[in-house]
Structure formats: structure tokens, C-alpha cells
Design goal:
Blueprint (H helix, E strand, L loop, with lengths): L1 E6 L3 E7 L10 E6 L6 H12 L5 E6 L3 E2 L2 E3 L6 E3 H8 L3 E6 H8 L8 E5 L9 E6 L3 E9 L2 E7 L11 H12 L16 H11 L6 H7 L6 H8 L7 H25 L4 E4 L8 H4 L3 H6 L6 H4 L4 E4 L4 H19 L2
Parallel strand pairs: 1-4, 4-8, 10-13, 13-14
Antiparallel strand pairs: 1-2, 2-3, 5-6, 6-7, 9-14, 10-11, 11-12
Length: 336
């Protein structure tokens, strides 16, 4: 049995998997709010007590860079330590993956009904794959073909310097610096925590009107992003401010996705994961994303041949962490 988890800035998905059932069919599973569980070890103990199974290995996708078998979650005051977890779980092997690396690892296990196509392209069967995932933060990863399978590679590319193209984007970057940002990166804009930055800029510097009903609603929540997004896609009353916020978000996300695809020459395709894209699929399909994605000068025509898909399965990172762990569990069993 394998314990696998997706530990994100907003929620934690846990599951128990076996080598027989595979990474998409957990024997037991649970979803928990990250902010309500600052002590990860206690959460694991409670989950395993309810499952009443003995595990042999654990594998976790975690929202942050992995250094020396430890991860400080980027958007939470929480550290996940593999050495400490071995003692807590009383097992020999605990593997930690960056959460976007885990999403990348899930791609081979995803089926047609887990994906929505934005661009058919002309896929290379063994070409590199790219993954970009806006959720609480912005994650990036890529995969390369190694003899008979894809191998995933972690990246912290979302923290590179933001490169504005339009005058609006230049003004946005200057606004963020004036707000006290010492370093403006793509995650500061293309993420759940970045959307309020775009919203505030458009309201304060571009003359977009914030109606009273929207202002009152935003005052009642700690995280304004769901309200801004739902209003932009028409789930609440109409707001030009919210619609323009989402439009700027999509254009900048498309350009950074194109940057990533060019850097790894993602002829196998680009996959868009994270919690936000499944909620805004109709807006991603209306042309704005692909226009920004392919806006790369002499390489524009080449980028048009790259397949682009949105990952709709909300458990992709959990599936990837489980797939990674199950493969290692199988290797561990075969060597005995």
C-alpha cells in the first residue's frame, strides 16, 4: 500500500493506493483545507487511523521547491520534512515532489475525458511536454522522453522576472513596484494570489468602476479571487472590472505559457493544470489565450503546431504523486 498526497496552498488531497488498483483508483481518499491543518503529521495520523491500513511507502506532491528532502510550502507557513515523516509513519521511504512535477507525472495516466483541447496542433510522439498550472500560486514543469517513457522535471520558472509587452502590462508592473514589490514575477500576476493585484491596478490606475454590491461582497472574504473570477465568467452580476481582470490574466498567462513552451521546445504539447483553468475554460477557448501563446515573432507559426490542453481532472497532482510512488514501490518489491 502507498500513501500519496497533493499538498497545496489551498487544500490537501490524500489517498491510499495499491499496485493492483493503480494511480487513478484510491482505496481510500480525503480532501482537507490547508489552512486548517498547520501540523501535517497530525493530519496524516488522523487520516490513516480512519483508513485502518498499513502502508509501505509514501509519496507527496508539495507546493514548493524540494531541497534536501524538505519543502517549505510557498504560500503557507508549513514545512514538510521527509525524514520526520518516516518516523511519524514508521516506514522506510518517503518521497517528496514539487506539486507541478507531480501534475507532470500524471499526464501519461490522463485520458481524453480528463482533458479539454485548446489547440490540436501536430504532436511529436516523443517530443518534450510543458506544464503550467495557475492555482494559489503559479507552477511550471516539463517532461522529456527517456528511451521508453517520459521523465518529469521540476521548475521554478514562474518566479522569473515578469516581462510586460503592452502598455497596460508595463503600467501594471510599475504599479506593483510602487505597491512595495521588490521583485515582480509571473506568479505575482498569473495565480490566485495575483488576480487581486490585477484587479486593484485596474480599479486604482485605469478608471474601472467597482460597483457597491461588488465592494460589499469583497469585504466579507479573505480571498477575493473566487468572487472576481465568478463575476467575470457571469456567475454573479456583470462587472467590467472583473471581466477585464480576467482578460489581462489570460493574456499574460498565454504569453508565459508560450515562453515555457519555447524554452523546452514542447513539440509534444503544453498542458494547463491548476485550480483556476477548469473554471474559465470557455474564456480560454475564445482565442485570447492562443493569440498570446503564439505571439512569438518568427516562432509564431511553430507554436501553432504545439498541442495545448487544459487538465480538467482536479486530482491530477494526486494521481501523479501516486503514479511516481507506485512505480518505485513496484521496483522496491521486485528487488526483494
Amino acid at each position: 500500500m502507498l500513501l500519496a498526497g497533493d499538498i497545496g496552498g489551498t487544500k490537501i488531497n490524500l489517498g491510499i493506493f495499491s499496485t493492483d488498483s493503480g494511480p487513478k483508483k484510491p482505496i481510500a481518499s480525503g480532501t482537507f483545507l490547508s489552512c486548517e491543518h498547520p501540523d501535517f503529521e497530525t493530519l496524516l495520523d488522523e487520516f490513516l487511523d480512519k483508513c485502518s491500513v498499513k502502508i509501505k511507502r509514501a509519496s507527496f506532491g508539495v507546493a514548493g521547491p524540494v531541497f534536501d528532502h524538505r519543502v517549505k510550502i510557498t504560500n503557507l507557513p508549513l514545512t514538510v520534512d521527509a525524514k520526520r515523516l518516516k518516523k511519524t509513519l514508521n516506514i522506510e521511504k518517503v518521497d517528496l515532489l514539487n506539486d507541478i512535477w507531480a501534475i507532470a507525472y500524471s499526464i501519461d495516466s490522463l485520458k481524453t475525458d480528463d482533458l479539454i483541447e485548446l489547440n490540436k496542433g501536430v504532436p511529436s510522439l516523443t517530443g518534450p511536454l510543458a506544464v503550467i498550472a495557475p492555482g494559489t500560486g503559479l507552477g511550471e514543469a516539463f517532461l522529456t522522453w527517456d528511451e521508453n517513457k517520459y521523465r518529469a522535471h521540476a521548475s521554478e520558472g514562474s518566479h522569473v522576472d515578469f516581462a510586460p509587452k503592452t502598455q497596460t502590462e508595463i503600467d501594471l508592473m510599475q504599479y506593483l513596484y510602487q505597491q512595495g514589490f521588490e521583485h515582480v514575477c509571473y506568479e505575482d500576476i498569473c495565480s490566485g494570489k495575483g488576480i487581486p493585484n490585477i484587479y486593484s491596478f485596474l480599479k486604482e490606475r485605469c478608471g474601472f468602476f467597482e460597483p457597491t454590491w461588488l465592494s460589499d461582497k469583497l469585504k466579507t472574504v479573505d480571498d477575493p479571487t473566487p468572487i472576481i473570477v465568478d463575476t467575470a465568467i457571469g456567475k454573479n452580476n456583470k462587472s467590467d472590472l472583473c471581466e477585464e481582470t480576467l482578460s489581462v490574466f489570460i493574456s499574460i498567462l498565454g504569453r508565459e505559457a508560450g515562453n515555457l513552451a519555447l524554452k523546452v521546445v514542447a513539440t509534444g504539447g503544453l498542458y494547463i493544470g491548476g485550480g483556476i483553468p477548469p473554471r474559465i475554460v470557455s474564456q480560454l477557448r475564445d482565442g485570447r489565450f492562443m493569440e498570446a501563446f503564439t505571439d512569438k515573432g518568427v516562432f509564431s507559426d511553430i507554436l501553432k503546431t504545439f498541442p495545448v490542453h487544459v487538465i480538467m481532472n482536479p486530482k491530477a497532482a494526486l494521481i501523479g504523486a501516486a503514479r511516481y510512488g507506485l512505480e518505485l514501490l513496484g521496483e522496491q518489491h521486485n528487488t526483494r
